[in-house]
Amino acid sequence: MISGEEIHASMLKALMLAGFGADNIIKVATDEHDAIIAEKMPVLDESTIVCLQAGNVKTGAIDPIKDICLIAKEKGAYVHIDGALVCGQGFLPKNLNLQRDVN
Question: What is the pTM of this model?
Fold first, then answer.
């Protein structure tokens, strides 16, 4: 289980309820805006679950979704994107790039 250092409390709670102990969550370094630094991601494989944020609740930062998803796809890892904060924003014409990165 991999997430950024700034994992949201609700995500952490959901992982705990799903049986993932806190010791099983690898927290990846984040930048000054609280987005994951893609270059700091550990090696992924088919047993990896990566939790990304499309809008950090504190700063609004969006993890480098496209870059990390491409790596995850190549390695067979599963990716969950927590996008509650910016879900509706992706449908605005000025933010169509958000949809491309998620797809």
Answer: 0.81
